[in-house]
Amino acid sequence: MIGRAALAAAALLLAAFLISPDSFAPLLEPLTRRGAPAVYTQTSLWSLTVSHLALVAGAIAASAVIAVGLGVLVTRDSGRDFLPLARMVTAVGQTFPPVAVLALAVPVLGFGDWPTLLALFLYGLLPIFENTLAGLTTLPPQVVEAARGMGMTPAQRLWRVELPLALPVILSGVRLSAVIALSTAAIGSTVAAHTLGEVIIAGLLSSNAAFVVQGGAVIATLALLIDAGFRAAESAARSRAGF
Amino acid sequence: MSAAPRISRQGLLFALIGLAGLALPLVQLRPNRIVPGEPLSLPASLGWPGWALAVPLAAALLALLPARLPPWAGLALGLTGALLSVLALGWAATALIAPDAPLARVSPAAGFWLLLLAFALAAADALARLAPPVAWRWGLLLGTVLAGAAILSSGVLGDISVMREYQSRHDVFWREAGRHLLLAFGSLGLALATGLPLGVLVHQVPRLRGAVLGALNAVQTVPSLAMFGIMIPLFGWIAATVPGAAAAGVAGIGAFPALVALFLYSLLPVVSNMAVGLASVPPPVAEAAAGLGMTRAQRLWRVELPLALPVVLAAVRIVLVQNIGLTVIAGLIGGGGFGAFVFQGLNQTAMDLVLLGALPTIALALVAGVALGLLTAQAGGAPLERTAPA
């Protein structure tokens, strides 16, 4: 949707801001009032960005492994009994608001990074699982038949035919989960997770618009870049699969 | 193992989850709302009537096992079991709260949630197999909502900690509930009022398509916390500098910034589904309408819009479910709604208060999602029947 040049510029700007936030102070100065600081310095923005991304990456990697594994299980002959239930649970589960999932994780795990990680993991499962099901159940039947006719074992069919063909759809599920997780992780700072949400919350508490804008801009840029990265991976997988 | 199994594997899974739930503590008894408590099982909290409840619950779980169990029986077992679990929770709380310890709290523990999960999964599995007609599903939804309302208003659950939180602030609760609905539905209404015409425009002027959808897509990637946060200084500034804006209701605090943030998130699904719905009208249908001498406006109103309706309803479902959830974040910026309880509870580490905000939000989102799913299913069949004679 957005040109590559604009994305590259956004990435450069983001890197420059994270490496040397102080040099952007004059830009943010007009947003402050009564001599409030223009740049968040409580914790380094760089370390917040790293821990924000680490939370998202850890949770979504775990979701992807489990969700794709479950998706494969319920589409095998031995697991097909669970398919109608699995479809219904994902449809209903996705109406659960991510914020509510986060809030419900706190009584179980207390405050800190863990409830956020659990909520991101749980919520990340559903889009990936749904897309894995979509990818594995809509394969062209003649391709699957051809693989069977060539004498491939079920495991070979799965790894060499079904999963590569379903990969673009699975990746778009991972993209959806990752973008939602990036946004939900920011809310995680209300339960004391170390994420960029901390900057926004600090801005809200001290009515400092500069903090809100810089925290929001960093997360939004990260979201755009991650979205574009996954889209590129999807089209690479699509052309490899021969679509 | 080639013979057909006598035991259904889903049934085995539900029974194992449910029996684990029966074995684990049903409730937590705490001296007051903040401190950790003592876990108690169903028989431990109710005495011999607890056994009288545990036995039928276990029997219902074991009854889910046979592979030949008809789906309607599975549905009945699931619904009855869920109802019985909720009643057991309420009775256990009433039995445990001593009249001389008014601060004591009884909250549901892991055992209760697992029991409820087991029966809900059994009901969901049966429902997926039954695939009942839409009218039945409406009946089931309505029945579930009415049963829930009846249980809540009967006072059976009155001694559970979440209901204690409710009793101590029921005026505020209904005010925030109204605010939550106003924000979720108000932003949806605004998005439909502007997004549907915009969708028609995008469909009729394809040059605009990339720019409009690209911009709305970028809006969608802005994290919710940042979106709500940025609205406050932005509208505070507009209210202070643009003459007449403050008088027109624009403000940096309260519900207004939350409403605008929700509205912006709602635009993409509405505009893109309107455009997709119009684009999916089969060309022969559009040509036939033109051949009948219909004007462009008549074609849009009488042929293309009715055919696009199911896709637009799907967008309404996405937006409503999404907004009911996102409205929680309004609580963080003083916009009200159930989020006010969630964040207040997190600040006070009062988990009962968090639940008072989170549970109604989840219930609202579920009901809205199911109801609009049913509406979409109905609309999906209707236009075809109407066009068939033509």
From TrEMBL, chain A:
Cell location: Cell membrane
Which keywords appear in this protein's UniProt record, sorted alphabetically? Membrane, Transmembrane, Transmembrane helix, Transport
What's one GO BP annotation on this UniProt entry? transmembrane transport
Name under which the protein is recorded: Osmoprotectant transport system permease protein
The record lists the membrane-crossing segments as 45-73, 85-109, 165-187, 199-226
Name the predominant localization: membrane
> Which stretch is the leader sequence?
none
PROSITE patterns cross-referenced by the UniProt entry: ABC_TM1
Lipid bilayer topology: Multi-pass membrane protein
Any one Pfam family here would be BPD_transp_1
Residues in a coiled coil are none
GO cellular component: a single term: plasma membrane
Record-stated family? Belongs to the binding-protein-dependent transport system permease family.
Q: Where is the ABC transmembrane type-1 domain?
A: 49-230
Automatic annotation (TrEMBL), chain B:
**Transmembrane domains' residue ranges:** 45-65, 72-98, 110-128, 140-161, 181-202, 214-239, 245-268, 303-320, 326-346, 353-375
Membrane-related topology note: Multi-pass membrane protein
Keywords, ordered alphabetically: Membrane, Transmembrane, Transmembrane helix, Transport
Instruction: Respond yes or no to whether keyword Transmembrane helix is given for this record.
Output: yes
SUPFAM superfamilies recorded for this chain? MetI-like
**InterPro entries to which the protein is assigned, alphabetical:** ABC_transp_perm/SBD (IPR051204), MetI-like (IPR000515), MetI-like_sf (IPR035906)
The GO annotation for biological process reads: glycine betaine transport; transmembrane transport
**Location(s), subcellular:** Cell membrane
Annotated ABC transmembrane type-1 domain ranges read 177-372
Looking up PROSITE patterns in the UniProt record yields: ABC_TM1 (PS50928)
Q: Which GO terms describe its cellular component?
A: plasma membrane
Provide the family line.
Answer: Belongs to the binding-protein-dependent transport system permease family.
Q: This protein is called what?
A: Osmoprotectant transport system permease protein
Species the sequence originates in:
Paracoccus solventivorans
